[in-house]
Design goal:
Elements: E1 2-8, H1 11-20, H2 22-28, E2 32-38, E3 51-52, E4 62-63, H3 65-76, E5 85-94, H4 97-104, E6 108-113, E7 118-119, H5 121-126, E8 130-133, H6 143-154, H7 166-169, E9 187-188, E10 191-192, H8 195-198, H9 202-220, H10 232-240
Parallel strand pairs: 1-2, 1-6, 4-7, 5-6, 5-8
Antiparallel strand pairs: 3-4, 9-10
Bound molecules: adenine (ADE).
Adenine binds near residues 89, 135 and 142.
Length: about 250
């Protein structure tokens, strides 16, 4: 059981995704809990102001620190200081499967979604405990990134995925890309499923999948190969097949 607390100016966006997805089923089964908090509810002025112009001038708006601190402090109470507070920002550490696994061992996580040009630096310095980026591109806010992080963490919680092994088998969990998948029909528009998959020979199928996975990883993500646990025979197989094998 993990509890996620998301702080955002767009709570409906975050709620609606999780209600509809596989994660929604896990919420119903109480395998996890997601509380979404509207930062605007923690403003005290008449206009419910959450952003302001940047000191020093320049364009854009900056999210004010007071409502963010007030929201997180009010929701966390005595737990402040013991719960990781993740700020989603393109300046953060790049999110990976290993990070998802570390986060999945926590009982509770806070996610702060920034908007506009950014959030006041004091939020980063004195409230957030970690900064996470989901990739080298800039989005309009931290909502999608927070959903990406929650989704990647949630599927590692036992019971969330239907197939108990699915999370440990898939790409990145094993530091390799997955083998290709086929389902029926065996022939579609003249394109046939590889014979080996129809053979019923489980050992041969496993060997084929492993080779496909290795070749595909080498072709598309050669950077993953040095960190992968390959046998001597597998390294030789990769050496035998050409460098420009399309995988
Ligand atoms: N906010 C805007 N872009 C982002 C990104 N790439 N990762 C995390 N948060 C963001």
């Amino acid at each position: 059981m993990i509890r996620f607390d998301v702080f955002t100016l767009f709570p409906d966006v975050v709620r609606s995704y999780f209600e509809a997805s596989v994660v929604g089923k896990a919420l119903q089964a109480a395998l996890l809990e997601i509380q979404v908090h509207n930062i605007r509810d923690y403003t005290h002025d008449r206009h419910h102001t959450t952003d302001d112009v940047p000191y020093g001038g320049g364009g854009g708006m900056v999210m004010k620190p007071e409502p963010i601190f007030a929201a997180v402090e009010s929701v966390l109470g005595d737990s402040l200081g013991s719960v990781p507070i993740l700020l989603l920002t393109p300046q953060g550490k790049r999110f990976t499967h290993d990070m998802a696994q570390d986060l999945a061992s926590q009982p509770r996580l806070v996610l702060l979604c920034g908007r506009y040009e950014g959030v006041d630096e004091r939020v980063r310095l004195h409230l957030a405990t970690e900064e996470i980026s989901i990739g080298d591109y800039v989005l309009t806010g931290g909502e999608l990134p927070s959903m990406v992080v929650i989704d990647a963490v949630a599927r590692l919680i036992p019971g969330v995925l239907g197939d108990a092994e699915a999370a440990s088998r898939d790409s990145h969990a094993r530091r390799l890309l997955e083998h290709p998948h086929f389902t029926r029909p065996a022939e579609f528009r003249g394109w046939r499923v590889p014979d080996v998959l129809l053979s019923g020979d489980h050992a041969r199928i496993a060997a084929w999948r492993r080779e496909q996975s290795l070749r595909r990883t080498r072709a598309r993500r050669p950077d993953l190969i040095p960190g992968a646990a390959l046998s001597e025979a597998e390294r030789e197989m990769l050496d035998r097949t050409s460098e420009d094998d399309p995988g």
